Every structure is written in structure tokens, then in C-alpha cells.
Amino acid sequence: MAVDTTRSTVETTGAPAPRGRRRSTDKHPGRLRRALATHWYAWSMVAPVVIVIGVIIGYPLARGLYLSFTDANEANVERTIGVNHIPATYENVGLDNYTSILTDDVFWDRLTWTVVWTVTCVALSFGLGLVLAVMLNRRLAGRGVYRTALILPWAVPAFVSVFTWRLLFNERSGLFNTLLTGAGFEQISWLNDPTWAKISVIAVNVWLGVPFMLIALLGGLQAIPGDLYEAAEMDGAGPWQRFRHITLPGLRSVSSTVVLLSAIWTFNMFPVIFLLTRGGPGDATEILVTYAYRLSFVISPRDYAGSAAWGVLILLLLALFAAGYRRALRKQGDVW
Fold this sequence. Notes:
15 helices; disordered N terminus
């Protein structure tokens, strides 16, 4: 008797076929869909913030990037005068704005001073903040009062602090010149001399930046286990050795973050420069961001395209700095 071998065992027995791997034609939910389905509550909480940031930051950024490729200025943008509506007449000029900026000595002069200003302010703020944090991390009488007093410059609005310093630097009736005159010295043109103006804006910005460094570094110091210091002291390590081999390595993760944030903030520190010296005397204290503001709101006719191109270049410089800084930290073994 012949046996039919073409039929499978499953078919002959009538048992259901076992489930195997799904075919490639089956539809799988995407990764984004699975994330939304799993974490829908978290996404719903974050959505308003994302929308607000997109409107406040995303749209102006895209608009500025678009204008940087045009010749838009006060005379050819869309505007309404009374009942008359004047359409925009500016045109696309490609990379002309960027070429003009990068081939002009004004940009490189402003960039040089901005880098000097940023490096000096961050270095002094970090050094003073570290010294004060180490001092306040010890047990001493009135430590809470000292901490509160040193945090006050950060709590006061920046424009109030800058106006106060402007009064102190006043050439005729300021406190500093009054003290110098009383001590028999000549008065100093704090804000009218290029060199002293640069020193003044650096001093004010350092005064504003030290509290942030102090708080961050003090928190980092308190996170270092005290057992390390006790073991090092028992092994005969002196104060400098303990500071070098325990304190500094223990603060590496905190210090790398605060230095990056402080550098970005100082690079774009508009209030101190504008409210204290307005970039003067002349253009001695003008940094990149204040010059971009001048192009868009002070100089006539207002150069919106040029100001937007300056803003894009500032953003690119900070992005390159952050990327290079992160890469350097990763080479040193820090994860950030």
C-alpha cells in the first residue's frame, strides 16, 4: 500500500500548527510608538514645556537663521505705518553676510576681547569660589551667616547689582574715588578709561559669578567622604597633599560642569557690559553679543540681517566650544 508523504504530520493528526517566528510582513509598532504607549503620562507632562520652548526659542532661532541669509534691514522689512502696509522687499544674498563679518577686523577684535573677558572672569570666579568653599566647608562660628552673605550677590537681580556698581564707579561722587581722594591718591576714570573700564566690568562679573561657583563647589566638597581625609592624615599627608590628591579629584565632575556653564553665561553676559559701560569707552569693552544688539537696535538703519548673522556665529562658537570641552573631558575619563 502506497503512503502519501506529501502531507505533514500536523495535517494528518489534525493538531494545530505550532507558533513560530512572525513573518517579516507583520506590522511591529515603532520604537517611538512603544515609548509613547509605555510612558504616555511622562510625555504628557513634558509636552507643554517642549511646546513653550519651541515657541520661545525654536521660532526665533529659525527666523534669525533665515534672516542671516538676506539683506533685511529697517528700510526693507515688512511694516505698517498708520493705515499703510508696506510689504517686505529684502532679498536672499546667500553667505554674503557671513563673508563680510569674517573678513572684517571688527569681528576678530570683538572675538579676541570676548575670549579674554570670558577666560579671565571664569578663572577668577572659579578660584575665588573654590577658596571660599574650602573655608566655609570647615566648622567655624557664624558659618551660616557667612554663607548667606556670600550668596546675596546671586540673589539680587543682575541689573540692580550693576547699577549699584555704576554708582560706586562714578568718577565724581563714587565711593571708590572718594576713598582714593581721602587717602591722598588721584581719582581714577573707572568707566571712561579703556583699561580701567575692562578691569571694572571683569570685577563686577566676577562678583556676580562667585556665589554660583561657591554653592556648586561647596556641595561637591560635602559629597567627598571624610574617611579619605582621615586616612590621608594618618598616612602623613599634609594639607596641600590632601587638597591636591583628594579635594581636586573629588570636585572634578562638579567643576567641569560649572566651568562650562559659567563660560557660556559669561560669553553671552549682556547685562554687565551694556548697563555698566554700553561697550565703551568707544568700543573698548564691546563683546560679540553687545555688538550684535547694537546692529539691530542702536545703529541706524538697523541691520537685522547682519545682527542675525552675528547671532548665528555666536551660537556656532559656543556649540564648538561645548563639543570640544566635552571631548576633552571624555579623553580624561570623565563621563559627561
